[in-house]
Amino acid sequence: MHEQHFCVCFMCVSQAHSSEDHTSDDKHDKDIWTPKNTQQTWRVEYKGMANLHIFEDWCGTSISQLQKNLHYPLYPHTRTTVKKLAVSPSWTNYGLRIFGYIHPYTDGDFLFAVASDDNSEFWLSEDENPDNLKLRAYVGKTGREWTAPGEYGKYASQISDLIPLQKNNKYFFELIHKQNDQGTDHVEVAWKLKQIGSGFSIIDSKFISLYTYESSLKTVDVNHIPQTFASHVTPPQRSSETPPHGVDMLRADPRDSFHQVPLLDKVRLQGVLPDCIYNPSYIIKGYPLMRYQGLQFVHLTYVYPNDYTRLTHMESDNRCFYRGNPYYLERYGFSNYIQLDSPENEEIKYKGTRKALVIAAPSNKEYNNRWDHVNDARKEEEIHDSAIHIEEVKDGGDEEDTWANQGYSEEDDYDLLNRAVFDVEVKWSQTFQAKPLDLHALRTDWIDLKCNVSGNMLLEESEALSVVEAFMKKLNKKFPRQFSLERIVNIEKKPDYNRGSRYLLELDLQEASGRHLRLVQYIYVKRTEDQGFHKKQKGQDAELKLCNPYSFYWTPTATVHFIVPVKNQARWVQQFISDMEELYRTTGDQNFNVIIIDYESTDMNIEQALQNSYLPRYRVILHELDFMIIWHIDDHSIVFLCDLHIHFPPGFIDTVRKHCVERHMAFAPIVMRLNCGATPLEPDGYWEVNGFGLLGIYKSDLDSIGGMNTKEFTDRWGGEDWELLDRILQGGLEVARLYLRNFFHYFHSKRGMWNRQVLRNT
């Protein structure tokens, strides 16, 4: 009865508080919520710790799911402290709320980063007032996002904007974390000054302090707990918007609209850099290849800044990016990525008679033993709740009847009533160390056919900035005070470790008049004898040797011919036409042509559909003539061998032009294949790393390697793209390979396609 009475009283307190909230809310506009905080007196003795609130036995992976807990945020199961903003209790199904103050070690502009498994949010105020909190960085919103310990660059949202802080001030912060019953539970916040070469370091006890002292307070004492924008629970009726899909690739990126900025005429760039002979060592012209061996000679492209083509939302199905044994990752998670802090028995003293005892953390050996046990339990379902049953007690018939009379089921609770039950002690304040983890740095530019979620290689920021700085010096030398750099939109690198590296620079420049211009140019950085690329040449002030790779330039006005073979795919032909119309409306680009090769379609009049469209140029070719007609296309235009079921990003035509260089380079963009039921706005799927069927190449270059192999691949599909790739490479060309943002292959049924026939039931 005492337990039941306590529960009723607890609910009364909770409901009373809820009623107070609603009454207070009614005083304001229905759509406006204001923080509710009672000012607390801060003491210097509070330094070295932060407040930690734990909400146990609550499933889910997202912060929004934590906020659905009836006791959140005022009535946590446990209120304690933590000495570092890096916590790993090695437990399941819980939520954490850590809050207090951050004390900067110097004046300056800081970047903050957060990593966690699963979702987390880091909020920081503009000052010591909790009312001024702003969301600075987070891991996910949907519950599907997670990172390894120290992995701060997986999602665009993990790193904050620059935040100016002053050493003599303190700043209120709040860190919220949700963990489910899988993976390696952890959450950490790191910071660094905005300086090239500086790295993130976890915020430790020297730079944090308590918001208030709680050890002497009872559970129902909640007036001191800050109710902030970070912890506010939005009523269901006010959160009707559908949560975003959570894919960073869908974020707005300057690359997506940069094609709309006027292009800086390459004539004005003449003389900025000297010309130089360009003959990459990786060209294999005349090299005898075995059938389909060319795939081994294609390398990936490095990009800057991060274009987030890594499919982080699909890594629950494929964790190949982490380069670990899949079974080990599934069973033990990332426990080997962190180092637990040593156990300490500290007694934190305050002025007056108040004392708080910090529970000692377990040793590494003890922790690892428990970690293995917990993970085994998760895998094999040996533990079904947070209780461990130690030993059986003797039967007592009378007691059993008494319990049964109070509503307990003999069958359901037999095990509970006949065993002594002990709850496992959880080290909620267990902190750890983790170095920043840059998994991109461990990759090579070889194509990994077994990993279809990785995305583009990332170019180091220091290298990208060095190249841009060197180029801008040359530009300003020829045009003093005429151009300023507004933004680095995109840099792509093709390394040649023997002779030097080629870069594609895409820079947003502003003229003295205020007009923005788009600079898109290939440059070459020669390798010197005494350096790898990342080292300065003979001193810190030595400049990189930049030049124009002779005859390696792109043509902004080149016509792009989209070649699409079809047969009885009326609805997809119509969709393709609509997508191409959208490209035309968005860009106004008239220098492209749609050529549909019709293999005797009977389900639509393709010619009529094209006539009714807004496309500037098109042509339908009967399959008897098929690729023979292509030979009459202008030699100095680009042929793009296309698929019917493609969704194109807005700047796709320009992207094809930039990556097709006559006599030098063809372009094979990597498309993302959407799963069944997925859409471009909800892009679940994987990168088609094996396929080279989507290919752009100059007509003259296609002619020089013998054109399409229509003799061998007249009435069958499979291997024709790899066979063409072999001949392109043997012809002395290279192939640019790039994961392309928002470039999708729609999922579609194969029923009735090409030579597939219906099997009749008899």
TrEMBL record:
The EC code for this enzyme is 2.4.1.244
Q: Which Pfam families match?
A: CHGN
Q: Cellular location of this protein?
A: Golgi apparatus, Golgi stack membrane
Q: Which domain of life is it from?
A: Eukaryota
A molecular function (GO) held by this record is: N-acetyl-beta-glucosaminyl-derivative 4-beta-N-acetylgalactosaminyltransferase activity
Per the record, the coiled-coil ranges are none
Swiss-Prot/TrEMBL keywords: Golgi apparatus, Membrane, Signal-anchor, Transferase, Transmembrane, Transmembrane helix
Return the SUPFAM superfamilies for the record. Answer: Nucleotide-diphospho-sugar transferases
| Membrane is among the record's keywords | yes
Q: Which SMART domains does this entry report, sorted A to Z? A: PA14
The reaction(s) this protein catalyses: an N-acetyl-beta-D-glucosaminyl derivative + UDP-N-acetyl-alpha-D-galactosamine = an N-acetyl-beta-D-galactosaminyl-(1->4)-N-acetyl-beta-D-glucosaminyl derivative + UDP + H(+)
Q: What are the residue boundaries of the PA14 domain, all occurrences included?
A: 37-206
One GO term describing the cellular component: Golgi cisterna membrane
Q: Which family does it belong to?
A: Belongs to the chondroitin N-acetylgalactosaminyltransferase family.
Q: What does this protein do?
A: Transfers N-acetylgalactosamine (GalNAc) from UDP-GalNAc to N-acetylglucosamine-beta-benzyl with a beta-1,4-linkage to form N,N'-diacetyllactosediamine, GalNAc-beta-1,4-GlcNAc structures in N-linked glycans and probably O-linked glycans.
Q: What is this protein called?
A: Beta-1,4-N-acetylgalactosaminyltransferase
Q: Which organism is it from?
A: Cyprinus carpio (Common carp)
Kindly list the organism's lineage. Eukaryota, Metazoa, Chordata, Craniata, Vertebrata
